[in-house]
Amino acid sequence: MKKCRPVLILLIIMITGIALVPLVSAEDIHFVRDLSNVQKEKKIAQPLNESEMITILFSNGWLEKQNTGETKGIVNLTVNESKFKEEFILDKTHLNRFVDKNLKPKDNVVIFRMPRTMFQRLNQDPNGLNISLPESHFFRAFDNIDKINSILEGKELAPLELMDTQQIPNQNGNNKNIALSNEPNNGWHIERVFFVPNAGFSTTHYLIGEIVPAYRNFQGSDHFHCYQERELSLGGGDYIEIGISYDDVQNGSRILLEPNIVDNGIQKDYSQYESQGSGSISISPSSLPHYFGYHVQLTNSRYYITFEDMNTLSWYPQYAYHDQDAGIFINSWTGSSELNLHQNNVPIVQYHAWTTAYDEWNQGILGDWQRPRAIWHFDRFSDNSNFVGIGYCYVNSGGGTYDIFGTGSSFDIG
Question: Is residue 157 in a domain?
Answer without folding.
Answer: no
